[in-house]
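So, read this over?
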Amino acid sequence: MSQHHFETLHKGFPITVALGWDRPMRYFFLTIHKPAELIDSAMKVECEDFLYSNWQEEDPFGHGPDYFREVLRHFHIDVPESMFTEVQQDYVKNVGNRVVKHQADGSFTEVWP
């Protein structure tokens, strides 16, 4: 699976957005990790670890990058376009085992493998 991470703030708290392509299962995913102390009325799941996880959707496997753009807009979270570009390339090339950290300026670093 490819994993693209971006660390930012949401309502003054640090969060991590993870977007990627799961090669074995053939689906895109999005999670928004949060600190336990962040309570958000826009939360789509009641979970101590996530503001959002596609696993909490009625159809967790049926969404693409454009859907996840809307989820991020729902939370007023901006991520670099490089995340979507790279995840799309992972899909086209059916990449797995790739972990990438993105910066606000659009630069990114592959951190694993």
